[in-house]
User: What shape does this take?
Amino acid sequence: MKELVYSRVFLPALEHHADKVAFFDRGYENTMAGHGERVLRLADAMRHELGLEPTDRFAVMALNSHEFLELYHAGFLGAGIVTPLNLRLAGAELQHIVRDSGARVVFVDAMFAAHLVDALGEVKDELDLEHVVLIGDPGADVPHDLAYEDLLAAGRPVVPPEPEEEDPVVLMYTGGTTGLPKGVVLDQRSEMLNLYHAGMVLGLPENRVYLHQTPMFHAPR
Amino acid sequence: MTGVLGIPATGASSVFIPIFDAGGVLDLIEGSAVSQTVMVPVMIRAMMNHPDYRPERLASLEVLTYGASPMPESVLTRIVQELPWVVLSQGYGMTESSAVLTILTDDDHRRSGDRQRSAGR
Assistant: This one.
């Protein structure tokens, strides 16, 4: 089934509100159409430049930003399964999650690149990791092998094949008091149903202006 | 996933702050006419205790969702008294339920009795 999949609501919104400036991230502003083009380029580059299959995992460790949102949206369009990393994790937990998830790519911003790459370097033979993509300033003196904007520029703005409702889309690790974090698999249907339920209670009018201030790695909100 | 998925899918606007900072949040809510956000109780308390906080700076705020930890009654009382135009919603859930299980609605918050102190309905 392909009814309760994010592309069914996201792609029409990009078209319907194409010219609306709807993304504000410090100096960055973009329209719905502009955001959509970046997300499609990203998804295409993840497939063809990084070789990610829809069932592959990619991890993200970053402060709140429009890039983080783009990565979620690319994942929801089928570019891969997003594995957000809690910003407070210590090295051993990061190693565990990247190893356990089998993530092939991590996206990281300058704030966390050194911490993450150092931690992963200690266990690199145990990981499936192939690429570290740096979000933000490509001139930052931190370890990485690809810059996010260069990756984006290499992609074409084409819509990827539509996911199925049962397709996993988020692999969220939930910290336990009893041991290492455990991965929770969330599929398109569960995310869409939760979205509709929240919308029934809170409404989702198009004139809302939403501030992302709780950490985006903890997307359930 | 309201902020990540729902907002862009309805053509609503997204504003970002890299990491919480009470003064920065006040500036953004006022400056960008923010109408919806999610905060944990400790963030709300920090914002309302900030020297630059004045209720009218939050005039654009329509929906405030909170959760993730217990809400002190004193903070809830301040929100209800100082920001009466804000629709309050409390989300309770867990990662495994992706993630909201139950929501305490604005009506629930304004009823008498212990309802305000419930986690979810």
